[in-house]
Amino acid sequence: MRRMRILLTTVALITAGTAYANDEVMKLQKDPNNWAMQLGDYSGKRYSPLDQINTQNVKNLRVDWSFSTGVLRGHEGGPLVIGDVMYVHTPFPNIVYALSIPEKGKILWKYEPRQDPNVIPVMCCDTVNRGVTYADGKIFLAQADNTLVALDAKTGEEVWKVKNGDHTKGETLTANPVVVKDKIFVGISGGEFGVRGHLTAYNIKDGKQIWRAYSTGPDADVKIDPQKTTMLGKPIGDRDLGVSTWNGDEWKIGGGTTWGWYTYDPELNLIYYGTGNPGTWNPAQRAKDGKREGSDNKWSMSIFARDADTGEVKWVFQKTPFDEWDYDGVNENILADITVKGKPVKALVNFDRNGFVYTLDRVTGELLVAEKYDPTVNWATHVDMKTGRPAVNEKYSTFANGPDTNSEGICPAALGTKDQQPASFSPDTGLFYVPTNHICMDYEPFEVAYSAGQPYVGATLSMYPAPNSHGGMGNFIAYDAAQGKIVWSKPEAFAVWSGALTTKGGVAFYGTLEGFLVAVDMKDGKELYRFKTPSGIIGNVNTFVANGKQHIAVLSGIGGWAGIGLAAGLNDPHAGLGAVGAHASLGQYTNLGGVLTVFTLPD
Fold this sequence. Notes:
five-stranded mixed β-sheet, four-stranded antiparallel β-sheet, 8% helix
């Protein structure tokens, strides 16, 4: 009888994709020998319990092997490690390589999709891709041309593929998909082209669409129940705020795109993600009756907590209502159990582009802490803890100053205090380690007409280092999200555009735009190691074990929004939505490339 029960259980796991895929992914991410997800695990901590590399010996790191991707432009994301195989991706044309780790990069298979090159001009901020996903014996790739493809992990052959959008309307794909149970979740890019954001769940077996939830529009489209869905712990109450808080039909081209990161709590069965800027960067065109009041442009700039099975919204929190500065709200939501005001909390911590870090109860969505994580932030003085709304400084309000008026000295710039480059949480220190930008801007909105597939921006920007500061454009910081305080801050010459990694060995890693892999002591930020890779780093550092030895891996390849000037050969300081001018001198320190570099300690 016992053998029969075991056999039936095994059959159930194999036949019920829901249980099997989820169990496999969670098992892989719990094994520190792997790096099985782009964010390390479902919680997005980017932490490893490996400690072979530590504060005493990290100075001895050396290059073990490297691999050229054969593609230039910005290399965001990072490699996956499943057993003895590493899966590496590239920017457009989105090549995927399976590499043998024991043979130090031998190509096991290569997948190179054929895509319409006309997708390149509608990719807002370089031709980046944030990485592939593994589950159910498949590698999942979100291609720039909106194709979601499932590849056989052993052979690289296509299993299925499905279209998620239309690039002729400005829709593209850059985000890293995430598998939960029998579903793979993927968003959409294109907020600067009037795209209406959404998150879609597909079946991992055959690519069949299961549900799609929009960021704007009627409650039915957003999957909100105003009597059950809460904000700040209370039912929303009012119906169809995704329509009524917009000027006319602007919600239909309202942005709120979902190109950031997705995290998941298996116990709560909730998937968490953020939505981007609200359509045109000219706020006057989105103002209902010409007023800021009542023009929140919901549900752009929001954190959603959705039931992973149905897509229904349990709670939602809007960080920057009626965004006037392009503070895209897509940054990762790190799930960490911390103590806040003496009470243990299942927390969600979000380092937003707008310069504030939000600590919320991830069960209820209640706001617990909201503070600046760069003291130069000036567009708002604080966040009202009762309403969750920022107290806007009218001097830096692009709406109050009006179209065709240049609002000067706004901090942070549209690049944000942090963009998509993911932070890390260490359960050993209880601190978050955050790659940040230290840049301000001038912002002049203007009237713009919508045309499908054409830029729908409506603003001219200039960016520059934050004045009266250390003179650089980046900091790597340690942050206490329970107290809302910076613990230490390490300045860098350029914006820190690389995802962070923390380890049990007491070492935090990040990369710089000039191309340095940097290791610091997590206690005080003291630099322990710095190595120059072939190109600027906008990829995310990870770690794994091969042949019994801990390794560190990172993709280098300058580009992304911060490096768009170099990546696309742009010289106009206003190009790249203002980023070119801010990083005009970057070309003196690095050049284009596409290289994976793998480090380890000497024998």
